[in-house]
Amino acid sequence: MSELIQASHIQLQERVTDWEAAIRLAAQPLLEAGYFEQTYIDAMINSVYEMGPYIVIAPEIAIAHARPSEDVHQVGLSLLKLDEHINFSETGRYATLIFVLSAVDEAAHLEILRNLAMRLSDTKVVEALMAANSKEEIKTLLEERD
Predict the structure, then answer these.
(1) What is the CATH number of domain 7-143?
(2) Average confidence (pLDDT) over 54-58
(3) How far apart are CA 99 and CA 26, in angstroms?
(4) Is 65 one of the catalytic residues?
(5) pLDDT surpasses 90 at 60
(6) Catalytic residue chosen out of the listed positions 9, 65, 73, 85
(7) Cα Rg for the chain, rounded, in angstroms?
(8) CA angle 15, 141, 5 (to 5 degrees)
(9) E strands within 14-71?
(10) What is the mean pLDDT of residues 21-46?
(11) What CA–CA distance (Å, rounded) separates 49 from 120?
(12) pLDDT digits (tens, 9 = 90+) for 76-130
């Protein structure tokens, strides 16, 4: 995953007001770098409204994404790490690590999701990410190979 995550695409923040703000903030580095248009962020948020909090793949982990479209110009990954988790629903779907994924086609989309999910299936990695205090530490944890 080292080719996808850059330290400049990682943000650390104490809290956000709600899950929409979390997605918007998490997406900001990729938006500013031209990876996608504002409409892609809207599509990610609309997907959660339409399908529920499916982006919360495990406790404390959300991977915001939408279908590849002409609004996406480059494959990318960003991360917002919060000190206080944010609820994505009233049923306890919450996250502290909010990833945003952009992909230009279905194959890249699925490959990135698979690789990220495999990395995050290691509870030691997730615990270390939750405890991390710097962008560099997070980047290293995401790049490490088992």
Answers:
(1) 3.40.930.10
(2) 93
(3) 7
(4) yes
(5) yes
(6) 65
(7) 14
(8) 75
(9) 56-58, 60-64
(10) 98
(11) 25
(12) 999 999 999 999 988 889 999 999 999 888 888 888 888 888 889 999 999 999 9
Residue 40: both structure tokens together: 């892609």
Distance (Å, whole) CA 21 – CA 34: 20
Q: Looking up tokens 């939750």, which residue turns up?
A: 130
In which residue are the tokens 């892609």 written? 40
Q: Work out the average pLDDT over 8-23.
A: 97
Helix (H) or strand (E) holding 11: strand 10-13
- Rounded to the nearest 10°, the torsion over CA 27, 47, 88, 83 is -10
Question: Which carries the bigger pLDDT value, residue 135 or residue 68?
Answer: 135
CB-based burial label for 6 (10 Å; 0-12, 13-18, 19+): middle
What is the token pair recorded at 8?
């400049």
> What's the Cα-to-Cα distance from 61 to each of 20, 56, 71, 72, 104, rounded to whole Å?
15, 6, 25, 23, 23
